[in-house]
């Protein structure tokens, strides 16, 4: 036991005590806490921006990439956006208390399976300070205490955000220990979160592949793996070009930096207008990594050759998160299925076809969290699927698969009522 | 990479290929496979008993405890019992294809959340050869391939059982690779199962605390923790003695060696007939580990003092799995809740009371997989709760909590149908 280990466990123990009270809190009280948080973030925007400025300046000094600096930066508008997202949680139904299943057995036992909070949720994430608020508020609405470990790049911002949220929940009679950070313990704090089995009920890593894989491998606390997306779009021979082109363009370019963006395009060899798709991708600024057949088609379509490269074996497994796309020509839907099963990260795959048989074959053959038929991969998103706010997209098979919202931050318990029943 | 690692991964890869076909198998075909297994076990009972005899003889030579020898032993009757359990699975509804949630969104996207098989399930268990058949058949009905690692004590029995099951599923056109064992690789085989992330989708340890904890800590494959039960019964002041006594006796003595047996009894100080319960327990052969007040009550009731011991701090955490019980007197339901939250393994707790307020307080205060009001702890069981056969009782909060049946051996996937939808 190190001092950090003791300190993290002490925080988790306080969190557990807070969670024990929070699990019985009414929906009204939890919503009041969310409203207080939203109000406080806006009221203290100046203080938040000042702290954030220190992080941004340090980031620039340390040579952080521009895109990361942008994600890190908070201004009044962004803070209002964060506060609005918190207010949207108020409108969502409380998952706690939902009777998932209930029946009276022949012997008269009344059996109910009821949603209850997890307890203490740990969250390890990177440089986006909005995640600090998102994660704490989703956990709170689901009746959980939360222990946060944000990236050191957002350290000053997170100190202020956590302090404001603790104050806000306390103002409505919820223990401040419901929201805590282990940031002051640095990397060791993260490591201790992963070791705190029995103290923390669930650990959610959110960030790049490296972070997620290291948490998955090192943690003895149950983990939910989120958000690595090597998503595919397959265009069948019979696909309507009027659907196929916009679906490919939207899947790739609508927001290339997120996990439900497509990274690989597979075209059936008999699809009539492959050149139009490849040229449109290049015109949208996408660098294509093509097999030889696809390259021929792109060149014949007059795509700017500066954007054409030969695909490598590694490309098929790449999550570019940028305007790059691997492109291959396949002989059949079976070949497409085989390719995707070999290379997919299990996030989202899309097919464009007008054949029920082909669509069903493709859907049945996938082993991914989501399959889209004639729709963009970008719809794998809690809000888009009508599920409400999400804490991440799970690409694992246990507990949560796909968008993880409030329900996935709860567990269930069996409640059985008898009248002196024995076996 | 060791040779064993390669061998286990090769088996898992074959299992994955088999699972890819199995996920599309009809319920009828899976049921035919189960019927063929049941029939084969009975038809080859002589061969199974002969192999089992070698295990039993070796067990006796190695000084295995009598209870373990009993669990290990198979005769024609027990084999019929195992075959009957397999036939019972045929009647259970197929979880695969169940639409868990479905809706059409305002934009016209048709969204369904559908149950699909996990893929490859690994199972690490101890000396009971019936688990070999149970686990393989539950996994099969849920559309999964299974990799088994049984205890070395049942080695010879398991070789025959696995060979018969592989033959049986093949006879109905399902790949024999759907059921395989890594027993020939000994302990290293178990270790490699735990390391085979990406090859195995779910690992279920079933056995004693030591086995389960070591799998939970070492495995990088997602694990479901099963079956450690330090279950409590709390008798409130107003409990009806006509209910309280049989519930305590049933919870403790009906089958003391299983995880839903009660291990601790907490009595409210004002419950009118504590002596009758304590004497009845002793008369049923239960050794009591009592706090000083409870000891006084037991002695006053004339309980045989040979069965009375002073409780130690360790007793409160003990899963005796035997005719022993820790007994304490508490001042209130709040004290009972505090005690149970400190010592429970999160399996099952029971209360006997006639007060709605007290029952609700107790139920809300527990953080366990099941809470019984006026019923025996023994009802936490898949069959008893009307859920069908179970592969274990989960005491963790992720994915499955309480009895794990067929549905818990599946995952879900999102299937979204559009008509060219983009964001």
Question: If you had to describe this structure to a student in words, what would you say it looks like?
Answer:
Two copies of one chain form a homodimer. The first copy, chain A, has 423 residues and is α/β, with parallel strands linked by helices. Chain A has two domains: 3-226 and 400-417, 3-Layer(aba) Sandwich (Aldehyde Dehydrogenase, Chain A, domain 1); 231-384, Aldehyde Dehydrogenase, Chain A, domain 2. In chain A, 43% of the residues lie in helices and 21% in strands. In chain A, the strands form four sheets. In chain A, strands 10-9-11-8-7-12-13 form a seven-stranded parallel beta sheet, sandwiched between helices. A four-stranded parallel beta sheet of chain A has the order 5-4-3-6, sandwiched between helices. A three-stranded antiparallel beta sheet of chain A has the order 1-2-16, with no helix packed on it. In chain A, α10 links the parallel β7 and β8. In chain A, α3 (45-61) runs antiparallel to α7 (155-171). The first copy, chain A, is globular and about 70 Å long. The mean pLDDT of chain A is 95. Chains A and B meet through β2, α10, α14, β13 and β16 of A and β2, α10, α14, β13 and β16 of B. Chains A, B: It is found in: Cytoplasm. Chains A, B: Catalyzes the NADPH-dependent reduction of L-glutamate 5-phosphate into L-glutamate 5-semialdehyde and phosphate. The product spontaneously undergoes cyclization to form 1-pyrroline-5-carboxylate. Chains A, B: InterPro entries: Ald_DH/histidinol_DH, Ald_DH_C, Ald_DH_N, Aldehyde_DH_dom, G-glutamylP_reductase_CS, Glu-5-SA_DH, GPR_dom.
